[in-house]
Task: structure prediction
Amino acid sequence: MKNTKEPVKSPLVWILFAVIFALINPWYFPAGSHAPLIWGVPLWAWAIVAASLALSVFVTWVVHYQWDMRTDDNEDQ
Result:
């Protein structure tokens, strides 16, 4: 029986998911904060966009490199 990679069993994957999800919610900015503006957009909005991009890249990395999607049928070829 072949040992397959399962990212669900990796604590590092779960820790990074938790950190990124915490960064998506701008709880670390003061309430009612709208300064400073960068190109007319508040800094907290840029932080959310950056964290969302990081989440997308991380999920893509996990699926592409950490998940063994090959089946027994594909290994015979």
